[in-house]
Design brief:
By secondary structure, this protein is of the alpha+beta class.
Amino acid sequence: MKEDCVGDCGRLRRDRTSEPLEGLDRLIDLNAGRLSRRVYWDSRIYEQELEKIFARSWLFLAHESQIPKAGDYISAYMAEDNVIVVRQKDGSIKAFLNTCPHRGNKINFADAGNARSFICNYHGWSFGIDGGLRGMAGQELFEDSGLKKEDHGLHPVTQVATYKGLVFGNMDAEAPSLSAYLGDFRYYLDVMLDMDGAGTEFVGGCVKSVINCNWKVPVENFIGDIYHALWTHDSAARAMLGGPVAEVYKNPDSYHVNCNGHGWEFNLDIVGNAATLGDKEIRKYLYRIQPEVARRLGDVRSKMIGSISSAGVFPNLSFLPGQNTFRVWHPRGPGKIELHTWTLVNKSAPPEIKERWRKGAMLTFSPSGVFEMDDGENFEFSTRTNAGFMTRQQDLYMGLGRGTRLEESVLPGNVYRNQVNEANHRAFYRRWLDLMQARSWNDVPLRDPAQLPESAFVHESAAQEVV
């Protein structure tokens, strides 16, 4: 065995990929709407998810508003991998694994800050904000041993890109661009990210909590499950609204849409979600800006800005327009997640509106929030119940809304009538299965409709309208 291997030795394992687990295609029957409970409890499946889903998907890292100046950084996660996201001197953003390449110690212990360098507590190895190794205690001894500093910097996140303030990272050099990954879903993301052209920002800090559930359970909930809200959240909604939730079971003006595993369910009531915050001033604000949103994004999207809706970017980023909770479900094993939550607002909104939104989001979607307490219990027992041997053998149903696809809709992506649907659940698991079975991105099938031209995302006209 060669003793003094340096440089490329650390890259050997990165080139290896494990064989897909056998029988994954038997766990899901999209035509029948059947899902095996094994996807929630099998530790082998979870380990494959870390490799084949999280290690090669675009994952949310930060909002640009969190790191405005050179040297500003935050700590983030890509599944179970801790990373440092840092603004560079040229204004670009880079991200690195938060581990020293010498003995693996964690380097940065702060959630956020500004730094000129990062220094490991263990042996004093120092790294620039660009990730390069700058020096260490006893540097001359390492130089005499043949160490080349340029080969031992912080391990970079392979791809980092932004979309309208949101910073994403991807560990796979072969992954498609962020633009291609989001695809037509950008049309819907602009409902939250590009209402008036002034951009968005996070207000307040990050709320962190732990829920004993499989990461896919809350993802399913946010990607398209309005169905549960009319039962699970009935009492909370009555407390916030002063009455029952409006009937949405047969709303003819509501939809499920999905693209590349991302999903959004919505109707066109403008402020239904925002109303559940219990703050009339926020509703007034949304009605006030709606004409400008209609001018830039079109009439349909202007009616989505605070409507009853929920959405998610594959695999684990979720948000609620109107309520403006923005969250990532970080996996911590098959039966545990760490939830990171922020409040997203329009940068141009008056300060008092931003503060009302922050307080409203905490009141509704925080660990003690009136809606999140309901959800957390459901998430945990939807996972914990699968511990029973016989229970594990029973399949679950996710066939609601089969046959509701709108072939002629001018809305982009895959469009289904009625937001009370499970079309987005099935689309999520189709994408999940494609990635879990693929050796590389070259093996991932192209299933979704052709993407909109880039001109569709320039909002000088309302070309993409629903008739």
